């Protein structure tokens, strides 16, 4: 069963790495000069949070089996708190939250959430 933890970590690193590379290329090609400084931070923070949340769920999978869904939801709440505490002040520094700034956070969030959801469903079978 520990191979699921390794597969999750490998899948997360690969997906987040590829999506970061593609995301950075698209931003550079279509929005030159508007480079988002927090792009790398968004990918790292979402990836690390996904690893932590999945690891906690993995560790407590037998002890708290009937409450895994609540742990998963608590992890999503944690991600939103991080957005509001870390990223929103950065993005609102100019007084507005642009669509590009929101997407800069949301794309890595979505990719991490997809990998996390698939892995948790496999964990629960």
Automatic annotation (TrEMBL):
Q: Please name the Pfam families in this protein's record.
A: DUF6168
Taxonomy, superkingdom: Bacteria
Q: Specify whether Transmembrane is a keyword of the entry.
A: yes
Note whether Transmembrane occurs among the keywords.
yes
Keyword list, A-Z: Membrane, Transmembrane, Transmembrane helix
Q: Which organism is it from?
A: Galbibacter pacificus
Bilayer-spanning residue ranges: 5-27, 39-61, 68-90, 102-124
Q: What is this protein called?
A: DUF6168 family protein
